[in-house]
Amino acid sequence: MTFPADTWGIHENHYWLRGGTAEHQVEYYEERGMWTVHGYPETLAVLNDPTTFQSDLSAAFPEGTDMSFNEGNLVQMDGLDHRKLRRLVSNAFTPKIVADLEPRIAGVTVELLDEVADQDEIELVSALAYPLPVIVIAELLGVPASDRDLFRTWVDTMFQDQAELSLADGDDQLREDLEAQLNALKPMSDYLTAHAAERRRAPREDLLTKLVQAEVDGERLNDTEIVNFAGLLLVAGHITTTMLLGNTILCLDTFPEQAERVRADRSLVPTAIEESLRMLSPFAATARVTATDVELGGKLIPRGQMVNPLLGAANRDPRQFDRPDEFDAGRDPNPHIAFGRGVHFCLGAPLARLEGRVAVNLMLDRFPVLRTIPANPPKFMDSPFMTGVSSLPLRVTA
């Protein structure tokens, strides 16, 4: 089954949500100067080989390009530097620490649902899917959750113009585009820099203090590294769960027989969440750069080329998934790659899964009905690289 992608405003690049298929598993798009990977095994080969397919994208950009956003950015780091920085924060996401957050997550969820308890209709993103993970990650990081409107503005800024970035536009235009993106994010940089400075004066028991005090090979992180690291945690730490929650409820609405199945057997909630991650992968694409000439999917990709694996398309590959366009709340096994794979597997995946499980169960407890409203359909983020609702109106009473 295909989703009503045009009605919902899903980005045109998401052809797999419109019943489309790629002619080749690996293709070169001359107009953007990049390679695109569509297939599951081909995408897996990219994600599992960080030596050949590097996360540091600087090699694909012209010399002299400001790549300061790479410093301290785990997503765009490789090798030993990546391992050292990842280790700094991984202790905050151990299985025990994440499990211990469950009472707080449940408490926040109940508080947010209480605020809409007397309504026949709710808008899920603003009521729960956005504020819940923002409150949790803000508390962990140590910034005020009350600033969440600012965080949402920064997320919109980070992803709104991605489709226009092209390596084929010429060096000057590319530098100009990247400089514009960096300038747009300066408010977030200034915000986190101020909080980091405050932690140096008055340390607390939070992640930001740990970043300020951390040492790598005997040296403290500089301001740019701290800000990029903290910004990644703040943004990725909530946007994935926001999309996961909205997408899961939307999948259950689109496949009502599966929704009834989950209501009747709550042990299926975790597998239903995994299936929603496969069907509507929150981060639909990622990026790598080739460190050497390499053959992939029958194509020879030269050294220094940008490669974009489409996680959303790979998660619909019939070579890997039986009935790929059907939502099966009990699908097992379900080796989707919505959280990536290999050394860059999403650090916050256990937290996102926990938040999703707790919130979906409490919603099913609270609301006898969770159905979309035909006259007021869902709206999706207008991004080629993200698949998630920006608005999800729901009827919650019979």
In terms of structural class, how would the helical and strand content be classed? alpha+beta
| C-alpha end-to-end distance | 26 Å
Q: Let me know the number of strands.
A: 14
Could you name the CATH homologous superfamily? Answer: Cytochrome P450
Task: List its traits.
single chain, 398 residues, alpha+beta, Cytochrome p450, five-stranded mixed β-sheet, three-stranded antiparallel β-sheet, 16 helices
Describe the structure.
- The structure is a single chain.
- Helix 7 packs antiparallel against helix 12.
- A 5-stranded mixed sheet has the order 1-2-10-7-3. The chain has a 3-stranded antiparallel sheet with strand order 4-14-11.
- It is built from 16 helices and 14 strands.
- The chain has a single domain (5-395), classed as Cytochrome P450 (Cytochrome p450).
- Helix content is 46%, strand content 10%.
- With 398 residues, it is of the alpha+beta class.
Map the helices and strands.
Layout: H1 5-8, E1 26-29, E2 34-37, H2 40-47, E3 53-54, H3 79-90, H4 95-100, H5 102-114, E4 121-123, H6 124-129, H7 131-141, H8 148-159, H9 171-184, H10 186-201, H11 207-213, E5 215-216, E6 219-220, H12 223-254, H13 256-264, H14 269-279, E7 288-290, E8 294-296, E9 299-301, E10 306-309, H15 311-314, H16 349-366, E11 371-372, E12 379-380, E13 389-391, E14 393-395
Parallel strand pairs: 2-10
Antiparallel strand pairs: 1-2, 3-7, 4-14, 5-6, 7-10, 8-9, 11-14, 12-13
